[in-house]
């Protein structure tokens, strides 16, 4: 049974009935869907910080998590032991990628030099395990928000010593990413924003962080680290306002500071909701602008306005996400679905960690199956094509081919009576569209 006292999780399909919690019902890694294996569409990743470090605290209570490695009380012993537990969990779940912050895998020393030495010891062990298991690094990142030195940000801190320290941390993280063959490198600006605008020079802070990103890109190039750089937008929490508010804001920042060649976006469901968007909206914005990089797969709660980081189980949302991914052809050039998610505080057993990942993986596999069927039938494509067909010829075509002018359109419209204009519009039948999507969910999963 190994360290976790749990057998390898197998795909049982639906033969065991809907209540079998420790098995995959829809995620069949090698099954070919829309021309690719499920595992290659989904590229699941485990988030080290939640899965191995999350104690399941909330603002009112201490941790409830029960974890077998808590028996190691020395921080470095525990960090090294966790590597064994981590790789066994990856292989038992059949997850081929993982993600971590520098701070997740090794404790800090008093100086950056000491901290880097701690990191090296754990990275040695991670590298050995990656070689032995074939599990790969989807992305690594640097925590520039946990330690009190980052109280007012890192690359937007008003304190130059802190900026310099953050740069030192980043240098080491990029070296680790290169060593472990990271597919991507993520920048989440946890405290890169402000608590109060009256004491903040917003443009100066953004100039600073843009310079920081350019230095990172230059150093990655210098050492031959070829991971895709990703910005992860989030509007707020922990700060009142974060500069990478949402996909559109982050893209504007990248364009303003000439960083579009280096960066794409890592989009997260719960972050989208905090910005007042659906997850699908954020992915659509990034996809259509050519910035879809990777996905942090989680969900929020309709009733609570915080970053809940729930494991994704909302089928309607996984269908929408996978519809966008199929339209894009992949989750970005080298992206995947990282479970930036934690079990609820009331799901505290080690087995719950497995159950939670299974729930997320099955929900995304089901979403893929439904979205693939919708694409196969061209349901949404046909619906959208019909909706805009008046731009395919006549006056509409003059808009799209650039020959229209305000005068030519006014001339066309000047004598049209209201009845003719109303006749030019069509009902969207939106309720039927929503019901049809429900039918796709029910039918595609019944056939699976
Ligand atoms: C925080 C969050 C981070 C990033 C990586 O809300 O999503 O864990 O994914 O720093
Ligand atoms: Co995230």
3D architecture notes:
It contains 17 helices and twelve strands. The protein has 448 residues and is α/β, with parallel strands linked by helices. The protein has two domains: 10-377; 380-447, no CATH class. The chain has an eight-stranded parallel beta barrel with strand order 3-4-5-6-8-10-11-12, surrounded by four helices. It has a two-stranded antiparallel ribbon with strand order 1-2. Strands 7-9 form a two-stranded antiparallel sheet. β5, α6 (160-179) and β6 form a beta-alpha-beta unit. α3 runs parallel beside α5 (112-133), α6 packs parallel to α7 and α12 (350-376) crosses α17 (430-447). It is globular, with a radius of gyration of 24 Å. The mean pLDDT is 98. Bound molecules: D-xylulose (XUL) and cobalt (II) ion (CO).
Return Rg in Å.
24 Å
What form results from the Cα inertia axes?
A: globular
- DSSP helix count? 17
Q: What is the average of the pLDDT values?
A: 98
| Element pattern in H and E | EEHEHHEHHEHEEHEEHEHHEHEHHHHHH
Helix content: 40-55%
Number of strands: 12
Strand content: 5-15%
How far do the termini sit from each other? 30 Å
Number of domains: 2
- Spell out which ligands are present: D-xylulose, cobalt (II) ion
List the helices and strands and how they pair.
Blueprint: E1 32-33, E2 36-37, H1 38-42, E3 44-47, H2 48-51, H3 75-93, E4 97-101, H4 102-105, H5 112-133, E5 136-141, H6 160-179, E6 184-187, E7 193-194, H7 202-223, E8 228-231, E9 241-242, H8 247-256, E10 263-268, H9 269-274, H10 279-289, E11 292-296, H11 315-328, E12 337-339, H12 350-376, H13 379-387, H14 394-400, H15 406-413, H16 418-423, H17 430-447
Helix pairs in contact: 3-5, 5-6, 6-7, 10-11, 11-12, 12-17
The structure holds D-xylulose (XUL) and cobalt (II) ion.
The site of cobalt (II) ion has 4 residues, from loops.
């Amino acid at each position: 049974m190994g360290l976790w006292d749990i057998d390898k999780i197998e795909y049982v399909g639906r033969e065991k009935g809907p209540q079998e919690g420790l098995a995959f019902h829809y995620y069949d890694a090698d099954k070919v869907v829309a021309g690719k294996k499920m595992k290659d569409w989904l590229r699941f990743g485990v988030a080290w910080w939640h899965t191995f470090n999350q104690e399941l605290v909330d603002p009112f209570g201490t941790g409830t998590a029960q974890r077998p490695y808590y028996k190691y009380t020395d921080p470095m012993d525990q960090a090294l032991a966790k590597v064994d537990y981590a790789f066994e969990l990856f292989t038992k779940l059949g997850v081929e990628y993982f993600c971590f912050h520098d701070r997740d895998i090794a404790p800090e020393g008093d100086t950056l030099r000491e901290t880097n030495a701690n990191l090296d010891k754990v990275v040695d062990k991670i590298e050995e395990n990656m070689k032995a298991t074939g599990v790969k690094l989807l992305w690594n990142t640097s925590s520039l928000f946990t330690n009190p030195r980052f109280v007012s940000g890192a690359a937007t801190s008003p304190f130059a010593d802190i900026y310099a320290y953050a740069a030192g941390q980043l240098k080491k993280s990029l070296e680790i990413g290169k060593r472990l063959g990271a597919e991507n490198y993520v920048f989440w600006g946890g405290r890169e924003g402000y608590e109060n605008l009256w004491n903040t020079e917003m443009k100066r802070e953004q100039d600073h962080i843009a310079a920081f990103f350019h230095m990172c890109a230059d150093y990655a190039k210098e050492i031959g680290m070829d991971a895709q750089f990703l910005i992860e937008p989030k509007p707020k929490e922990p700060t009142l306002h974060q500069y990478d508010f949402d996909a559109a804001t982050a893209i504007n920042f990248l364009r303003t500071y000439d960083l579009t060649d280096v960066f794409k976006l890592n989009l997260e469901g719960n972050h989208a909701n905090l910005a007042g968007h659906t997850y699908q909206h954020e992915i659509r914005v990034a996809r259509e602008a050519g910035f879809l990089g990777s996905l942090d797969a989680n969900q929020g709660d309709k009733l609570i306005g915080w970053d809940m980081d729930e494991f994704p189980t909302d089928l309607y949302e996984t269908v929408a996400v996978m519809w966008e991914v199929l339209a894009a052809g992949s989750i970005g050039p080298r992206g995947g679905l990282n479970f930036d998610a934690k079990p609820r505080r009331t799901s505290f057993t080690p087995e719950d960690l497995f159950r939670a990942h299974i729930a997320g993986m099955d929900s995304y596999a089901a979403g893929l199956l439904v979205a693939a069927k919708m694409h196969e039938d061209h349901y949404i494509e046909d619906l959208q094509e019909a909706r805009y067909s008046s731009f395919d010829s006549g006056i509409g075509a003059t808009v799209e081919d650039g020959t229209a002018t305000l005068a030519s359109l006014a001339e066309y419209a000047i004598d049209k009576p209201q009845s003719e204009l109303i006749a030019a519009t069509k009902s969207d039948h939106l309720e039927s569209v929503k019901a049809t999507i429900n039918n796709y969910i029910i039918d595609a999963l019944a056939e699976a």
